[in-house]
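Here is the promised in-class demo. Please do not try to memorize the tokens; focus on the logic of going from shape to residues.
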């Protein structure tokens, strides 16, 4: 059996810690929301859901175009693939839902509801600083996404739109990174991507 298929069948080692982290983040956000007496609506606006899905798909397509046309973005994607390892469809979808719900409760419902759009968007970007200086495009992208998601939330007043946008971007991009990691495993002869094998 090829090495990458054996790896693909095992759950990704990031899934359990991510579930704990995003569960705690969501719990903290809900406690903040309750303490601050913020009003949070979810799934009340079909227009917000459609706008969120459209935004997520557009950003994912833009990301894939950037990967194909930019050496810097391609290098960044390879770095992420090395860190994340070979993600299967279930792993990518699970991580996307966990991050979409946890981060949107925190950054949009709690922080934006308390501090406003600009501080919440900047804090969202700062929370996405990578492990090395070469990850700065990801941080800039996260700041821009923070504003886009924040504007969607301000426009609709419904958290479902930002959750769907966030989860869609993450699901499609994580799936692409998982394929990239598996391709690298094949090229490396099963030695692993960046020591993850």
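The designed amino acids, position by position:
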């Amino acid at each position: 059996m090829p090495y990458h298929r054996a790896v693909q069948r095992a759950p990704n080692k990031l899934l359990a810690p991510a579930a704990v982290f995003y569960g705690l983040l969501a719990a903290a956000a809900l406690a903040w929301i309750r303490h601050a007496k913020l009003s949070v609506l979810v799934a009340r606006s079909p227009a917000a859901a459609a706008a969120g899905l459209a935004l997520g798909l557009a950003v994912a397509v833009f990301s894939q175009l950037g990967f194909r046309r930019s050496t810097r973005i391609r290098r960044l994607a390879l770095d992420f693939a090395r860190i994340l390892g070979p993600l299967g469809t279930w792993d990518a979808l699970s991580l996307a839902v966990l991050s979409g719900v946890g981060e949107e409760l925190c950054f949009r419902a709690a922080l934006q509801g308390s501090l406003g759009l600009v501080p919440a968007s900047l804090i969202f970007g700062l929370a996405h600083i990578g492990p090395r200086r070469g990850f700065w495009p990801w941080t800039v992208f996260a700041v821009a996404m923070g504003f886009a998601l924040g504007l969607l939330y301000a426009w609709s007043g419904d958290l479902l739109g930002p959750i769907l946008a966030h989860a869609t971007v993450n699901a499609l991009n994580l799936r692409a990174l998982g394929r990239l990691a598996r391709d690298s495993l094949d090229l490396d002869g099963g030695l692993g991507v960046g020591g993850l094998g």
